[in-house]
Amino acid sequence: MMPPRSILAAVDFSEPSRVALEFATRLANQCQATLHVLHVEDPLPAAAARVGHVDLLRETREGLARFTAGTAAAATRTPLQHVVSGRPTSTICAVAERQQVDLIVMGMAGASSPTRAWFGSVTEGVLRQSNTPVFVIPDSWVAPLQGTADLSGMGPVIAGIECTCSAMAGVVAAVRLAEALETSVSTIHIVPDLTVVERSPLSGGTVVAQHVERARAEIATALLAVKADVPIPLHVDTGAVAEQLAAAVSSTGPHAILVLGRHTRGSKRGAPGATAYRVLGLAHVPVLVQCLDEGWR
After folding, report:
1. Residues 155-179, buried b or exposed e (16+ Cβ, 10 A)?
2. Rounded CA separation 283/250 (Å)
3. Which residues contact 121 (CB under 8 A, 6 or more apart)?
4. What predicted TM-score, i.e. pTM, was given to this entire model?
5. Strands (E), 133-265
6. End-to-end CA distance of the chain
7. What's the distance, CA 40 to chain centroid?
8. DSSP code per residue over 137-152
9. Which residues contact 292 (CB under 8 A, 6 or more apart)?
């Protein structure tokens, strides 16, 4: 649901997760949502600590409280804190479902960060396994207006969409998010480069042009069914999908947000979050990955 009524921020005490927690706190303030903060504890050290009569759980809870209090927007909200032992990916997904949150917020380190290998793999795992929408925040993200406790100044919101009916779920999420942030929204569809059979009477450029016009007509018709108070501009381009999406959102400014759709577990449409995860490494902006397999109307 967007705007969210409840948000789960998954943290590992790293700097990328601190940035994600700052975003989650500000989004909760913006939407008046309940905020949950989750730290997943490695079960092996926890078991060893119990053998040595060390209350590692209490220490971790105290550490999580200090970590949470260290965010700039923390003074405005008291989140519900959870420390759970288990495998990070499956535990984050399980807690999100158990708490019935509308959104998971996670961080992602830059390519040169030593924490990228661990936390990046967990983020990717959650993107692939979760049935809950995931907001991924790059570690370079900074709030536009430091003197506020919400997301004032963020935008525009751009929805990267497929040429399918289910893709409208991502557009609806983008529209609702833009309304909550009081910013504009637009959509973009990328037609992948096509390989034309040599004996085809049509040139490669002609085939691509036909695909572009067909996609533009189909998506424009579908957008008419999306309830929005303002027009939803549509841009159709060609090329490598992840690269073109990243370039499009980067060109709109440093405070843009990209909304992408993904098909959930059990879908026959490919690995959930695969394209989204490639975009995450290129765009350097917050990316909301919305589930498409549920109804959108």
Report:
1. bbbbbbbbbeebbbbbbbbbbbbbb
2. 6
3. none
4. 0.87
5. 134-138, 157-160, 185-191, 234-238, 257-262
6. 12
7. 20
8. EETT---S-TT-SS-T
9. 162, 164, 166, 167, 169, 170, 261, 262, 263, 264
Residues 6 or more apart whose Cβ sits within 8 Å of residue 238: 190, 191, 192, 193, 208, 212, 244
Tokens of 143: 């709030």
What pLDDT digit, counting tens, does each position of 236-247 carry?
A: 998 888 899 999
Taking the C-alpha atoms of residue 266 and residue 244, their distance in angstroms, rounded to an integer, is 28
Q: What is the pLDDT of residue 50?
A: 60
Report pLDDT digits (tens) over 63-94. Answer: 999 999 888 777 777 899 999 989 999 999 99
Per residue in 117-142, pLDDT tens? 444 678 888 988 888 999 999 999 99
Domains and CATH numbers, the chain: 6-138 (3.40.50.620), 157-291 (3.40.50.620)
